[in-house]
Amino acid sequence: MPPPPARELLLGAYRAALAALEPRGLAARAVAASATLARAPAGSVLLLGAGKAAATLAAGACDALGSAIAGGFVVVKDVHAGATLAPGVVVAEASHPVPDARSLAAGRELLARAAAPGAGIERIVAVWSGGASALAVAPASGLGLADKATALAALAAAGTPIGDLNAVRKHLSVLKGGRLGVAAAVPVEALVLSDVVGDDLATIGSGPWSPDPSSFAAALAVVGRAGVAVPAAARRVLERGARGELDETPKPGDGRLAHVAVELLAGPDDAGRALARALEASGVATEVELRVGADVAELASRLARAARELAAGRTARALVVSGEPTLRLPARPGRGGRAQHAALLVARELAGLATDGSCGLAVLCVGTDGTDGPTPDAGGLVDGATASRARARGVDVGRALEAFDAGPALAAAGDLVTTGPTGTNLADLYAVVALP
Asked: Which of 225, 87, 237 lies closest to 164, judged by CA?
């Protein structure tokens, strides 16, 4: 039986990859495997969480812990709340990628509960994923939420790599960079889902439970390299810290984090391999490239070249790329995200290629969380006819790219992928499939 058309094949493999790494099951299995948590008495565990996948992870922890959970607090991105959790566990929503007043309230709540978990609480189980940096914030003393958000938005728009961006975040915060772990009054077991290339625990969600190898001086240098203006209050905090006037974040080996254990559940590498396995199961020989952090334009060119090469072959072949490319945004971008922008760049390069997704060739650019950038869309699924379909609806692909307005262009072509929140967050997946 021949494989389904390329577009259908890619979407099916994407769904299969997410199912293979479903966070609820990952968290439940991790809790069940913990000798300490397996013996936790009723009412002895406080559940805390933050991130796009935090509700799904929390549900898995609830499945495994049962009556041991005395209550808790979990903050997620708007509309990512998901399953109902154990009694007493509050699920709040906040803004992403730009924090809001709810993010500030969530950060304060997490700090307060960690520092004073309540009578009878012997342990904290923390479930964390990407997105937590914006969803739970607690600015440094003398720094307002707007100042911090403005500084980070300017750095993100300048294409600052996530590790550098988080070095600044951590040093403008009293929660991130291991500070939440230091504040915790009882032992902590943190279960972390990674959306960071390389799975650096100090970077995922800005590492609130992990030691921080960066410094105030390094954070100040990030601002200097970016060449962007940041609010004076934010610069003042970094400068004071660099002069030694403020307490540094806890570093590797700091005894104040001896009571915190952090376990990585899965990351972008796992997502890439899972997608490759799903394609291989359909009879498509697949090459995998992991830990891609290039500029979106460079990645799109790589995908387009691969599409042309694979389309010229005589066997079913695919390329899978996982990671998180960077995208430098203008002051007023249109609607879209990095995956949608990459998809439209690929579509422009493939314009006129005879083979398309109705039979032989398709390229998928998608976020695993189902929300690419500040949009409700996951990404794009394009082929050699995408540009002509958009043009037939009155959309100029080149102008859309210049305006960073990829979403409407993909929608006009019928190539916008909208899944809704998936319950996970493992960075992005990019894949090319060519069928004979």
From this structure: 225
Q: pTM above 0.85? A: yes
Instruction: Give the confidence band of 97 by pLDDT, cuts at 50, 70, 90.
Output: confident
Torsions phi, psi for 189 (to 5 deg): -115, 110
Give the position of tokens 């966070």.
23
Domains annotated on the chain, with CATH: 6-14+269-434 (3.40.1480.10), 22-138+173-214+249-266 (3.40.50.10180)
- Cα separations in angstroms, 394 against 19, 328, 351: 37, 27, 16
Per-residue confidence band for 1, with pLDDT thresholds at 50, 70 and 90 = very low
What's the token pair of residue 28? 């439940």
In the prediction, which pLDDT does 357 show?
56
| pLDDT at residue 152 greater than cutoff 90 | yes
Instruction: Count other Cβ atoms within 10 Å, centred on residue 141.
Output: 7
